Amino acid sequence: MSDPNYNLAVIGGGAAGMLAAGHTAEQGASVLLLEKNKILGKKLLITGKGRCNITNAEDDLKTFITTYGKNGKFLYPAMYTFSNKHTVDFFKKLGLITKVERGGRIFPHSDKAKDVVDCLANYVKKNRVTTKFNSPVKKICLAADKHKLQHIEKLILENGEEIRAHNYAITTGGKSYPLTGSTGDGYCWLKQLGHTVIDPKPVLTPIIVKDKITKQLEGLSLKNVELSLWTTRKLASFFGEALFTGNGISGPQGLNLSKIISESHANNLKIKIDFKPALDYPVLDKRILKDFAELNNKLFKNALHKLLPKKLIPVIIFLSGIDENKKVNEVTKAERKKLLSLLKSFELSVKGLVGFEKAVVTSGGVCLKEINPKTMQSKLIDNLYLAGEVLDIDGPTGGYNLQIAWSTGYLIGENFCKTN
Fold first, then answer.
1. What predicted TM-score, i.e. pTM, was given to this entire model?
2. What is the pLDDT of residue 202?
């Protein structure tokens, strides 16, 4: 049987778990961190394609919080206690140098997610957190005191070992990238403990389209484009980077669009890509006429290199129906209008979304009404705290989702010794 004198036992050694364990221990508490894998931060290692986008550089914290939508207000106490700027300072003190890239995304200067994980692992170790690896939890046992208030009495591990602590934190993440250990265990336990769990869905995930032509564009990275989602009207649009996959769209703005798709119940959804959002139709038409005038005797297939990336040109030519061997001075106004339409409104039909195996984050989770936003303490279970992706809140790409983990995890430690 484990030492019953731990002030806090944290289940899950990811971003939120390491912050919660490390900062709680930093306040003088005795902390146990339970991790089902043989290493800490396994999912962190693959975030941002192995580079780990730790947060976003947005200057205004209120603007930062609005990116989370209607549930964002829940994060005010956590974000004001440990903001994106605090995150950068925190990692700087741990020896991690960061850099800001397009869209305000903040990465380690080394471009190595492992450096982020190493910083956090050292932080946990330095503050004398006891860490148990290869220790998946099998059961959480409830009891009631003389006032009939429910509390967690103990944990039972898969190997039969019992863990007892005065308080517990569940920071097990969501269901995205299940191979890293994020298999939704926390949701099952929390339902059993009486919490309401909003149905988890994969979001920020690649989009699958019906159009086979994307196979020809696989791997093509786009910058400064606008992606919009349509039914009979425009539902949403995002500006920035996108990526063609073999069967659809990914990249930062493709992932952001996927969240709108996951929330839509409409049929026949269409994605429209504007390859030249900075130019309206008349201006773009003038630009094309100028290019054609300079390339007067060139063939059409050799006259688009100033407008489009090489890989996109044959696809645009095919869809335009313009003879690739026609000289540009012979391209008609009607043909040019078709070309304009493709450049400003390249249309794809949505088939669906890739599932949890490639989702950056999980939408849904524990109902926020059942959590105290000032402490992250459960309103239903007296000695339980929650942080990170297990909560019903998520944001767009760009470092916003990891900031939830940092802020809510830190808040547990900041308030723990004040309330216990």
1. 0.88
2. 86
